[in-house]
Amino acid sequence: MNYETGTIAQERLAGPDPAPARGRRRWMVALVVVLLVAVAAWALFGRGHKGAAAKPVEQLPTVSVIAPGRSTVDRLIQATGTLAARREMPVGVAGEGGMITRVLVEPGAWVKAGQVLATVDRSVQTQTAAALGAQVNVAQADLVLAQAELDRARALVDRGFISKADLQRRTATRDAAAARVKVAGASYAEARARNGRLDIRAPADGLVLTRQAEPGQVVGAGTGVLFRMAQGGQMEMRAQLSEADLVGLSPGARAVVTPVGSTRTFKGEVWQVSPVIDPQTRQGVARVLLTYDPALRPGGFAAAQIVSGVSYQPLLPDSALQSDDRGAYVYIVDAQDKVQRRDVKLGQVSDAGVAITSGLNGTERVVRSAGGFLAPGQKIKPVLQKA
After folding, report:
1. Phi and psi dihedrals of 7, rounded to 5?
2. Strand 116-120 to strand 283-290: parallel, antiparallel, or no bridges (unpaired)?
3. Is residue 58 part of a domain?
4. Which chain positions lie within coiled-coil regions (predicted)?
């Protein structure tokens, strides 16, 4: 009895049997191992098979393209020439001449029409005019006397004291005296006009360009030019142009003139196109009217840009243009996004770009840059940018 009681107490103290718990743990570990092996197999074989079956992705270069359209392009003509007065007026001696006593103007002075530029000594001419003026007074006195005698004769002829023949003689005497007054007056006026022509005067409003007169200089009809003037102060540039540039150029065309050695520009317009061509140089002259400015010195050299018309052409940046032995060309992108060569002809070059006279209509997609790294037929990924 005591033995059985002790054995039962020992079993209660030892607890339940651990064998079933250990079996469950083994099954759980085995299940985890199987899952891990399955995942590893899928990662190794499933992904590898899928990657081998997928096609490789093609990497296309991204290239900027533009659709230039058509823009208004000025037809510019580059020209060189000399500056001059539009209407140059040489001024010399108009009368009989004499010794210059004073010069009243200097080059660069503005003068009015009839203004005295220089005076000539007139001491002898003044005395001659005075004598003629005195003759006018004598003739007028004779006329007054003849008229008085005629009036008295008319009063006496009715009384029979003077015959009609005597009256006619007195009338003729009066008429002769009146004629002598007119002759003397005309001679006096001529002398005064000659004296007035002794002074050298400006023929019109304008700017004095040169002076060749000095006090004490004796001048006459054959002396030559003493002053040169620009009528109204108007200047011009006489641009030398080739036959090809003269084609289509007409008066009214806009121009910008830059004198040599100056950074200033002056706006003007063509007012005359030469109707003839120099047979030696094969050039003609286009005369560009300019408003007076002290920087425009007649005789100086200048360059001009003349706008002879406008056209509508595609404009491209310099970076889009390529060239080789065959000439200038660009790369365009076709409907399949493939690069194709297109030969072009270049026109006017300006700050806005290079005009294309032929080869493009403006609707094409043109490679903007990096054309040197592309080849005809190459496929690209175009990115359209603003022209």
Report:
1. -65, -45
2. unpaired
3. no
4. none
Strand partners, 361: none
Report how many domains make up the chain: 4
Per the CB < 8 A criterion, the answer to whether 167 and 219 are in contact is no
In the DSSP assignment, the letter for residue 371 is: G
Could you tell me if 38 and 131 lie in one domain? no
How many Å separate Cα 114 from the centre of its chain? 36
**CB neighbourhood size of 352 (10 A):** 13
Q: Decide: 229 and 89 in contact? Cβ < 8 Å.
A: yes
Domain containing 168: what range?
A: 88-219
Q: 252: which 2 tokens?
A: 């009214």
Cα–Cα distance for residue pair 321/347, rounded to 1 Å: 12
Taking the C-alpha atoms of residue 147 and residue 145, their distance in angstroms, rounded to an integer, is 5
pLDDT in tens, 158-176: 766 777 778 788 888 888 8
Spatial contact of 318 and 253, defined as CB atoms under 8 Å apart = no
Q: Read off the pTM.
A: 0.57
Please state, in angstroms and rounded to a whole number, the distance separating the CA atoms of residues 380 and 162: 131
Q: Give the tens place of pLDDT for each residue, 365-378.
A: 899 887 778 888 88
Task: Note whether 203 and 248 are same-domain residues.
Answer: no
For tokens 């004296």, the residue is: 195
Helix and strand counts by DSSP (H, E) for the chain: 6, 23
Q: Which residues are CB-contacts of 134 (< 8 A; sequence separation ≥ 6)?
A: none
Three-state secondary-structure class, residue 232: coil
| Residues 200 and 109 placed together within one structural domain of the fold | yes
* Residue located via tokens 């990115």: 383
Single-letter code of the amino acid located at 307 = V
Cα 172 from Cα 178, distance rounded (Å): 10
pLDDT > 70? residue 98: yes
CB neighbourhood size of 174 (10 A): 21
Q: Is the pLDDT of residue 254 over 50?
A: yes
Radius of gyration of the chain (CA): 55
Mean pLDDT of the chain: 83
Q: In this structure, what token pair is assigned to residue 67?
A: 């659709």
DSSP letters along 27-38, please?
HHHHHHHHHHHH
CB atoms within 10 A of CB 21: 9
